Amino acid sequence: MYNDKVLRIPADEADLWEILQEHFDLARYVLEMPLETKEQAFDVDFQSRPAAELDRISMGLIRYRNVSEENDQREYYLDIGLKLIPFIEKALEVRRLTPEFVQQWGKLMFCHGYVASHVFDDSDDLETYRNRVKGTRATDRTPQRIFLARYLLWFMDEQKQRRKQAEPNAAKAIWDFIEKGNAENIPGGYDLAWFKTLVRDDDRGRIVSPMEQNNMSEATLRELAAIEFDGLPPIELLVPPAQP
Q1: Same structural domain, 86 and 180
Q2: CA–CA gap between residue 181 and residue 195 (Å, rounded)
Q3: What pLDDT, in 10s, does the model give residues 118-157?
Q4: Based on the domain organization, do 22 and 113 belong to the same domain?
Q5: Domain limits at 125?
Q6: How many domains is the chain built from?
Q7: How far is CA 25 from CA 95, 221, 225, in A?
């Protein structure tokens, strides 16, 4: 951002105003960058997007830092800096060096410097947290269990099949869905590999062992199915269309 041209000693008063304008343009550029919120910084899915990674690499946003609340002054100084922009912009147009301009200019530069430190800082103090969340997700089978419970109950309640009949039918339907390879309608965050975790690979007529009748009662199955869990793929992906 900064170079010798911007940091030069002014040759005269006209050159001074040119330099101040250049400094102001740089400060405004930084202060008007996108602000990374606390929620975005902690959001594993948001940060996993290629665009989020690019913003961090290219210094394209004002980063959130995981610091104590009393030391987090980022938004405070950003707000002051943004409110100073109209005054400084107008003062640079008329080129009048007044005491008020000098004071407001100093405030703008302080705010710019504070905010810029959040732009140039390429560390990631939340990486460990997000990796821990990803690790937990990788081993947590709760979403699969809820989905499979709902799918089995569709066979049992809607198709009036007994549990022993529903399980192999569900397993077969899941494998048919996987082998068709149609992943276009699967909601974000899920893929065909996720559906493979619902069934046995060594026996395509069986669902995963913990969900089978000899390991889970129907009452537990219904308790699982009733759990609210946002974002799961709808079982309608695997439900054949109703016959006329």
Answers
A1: no
A2: 11
A3: 998 877 878 787 777 666 666 668 889 999 999 999 999 9
A4: yes
A5: 13-134
A6: 2
A7: 15, 62, 57
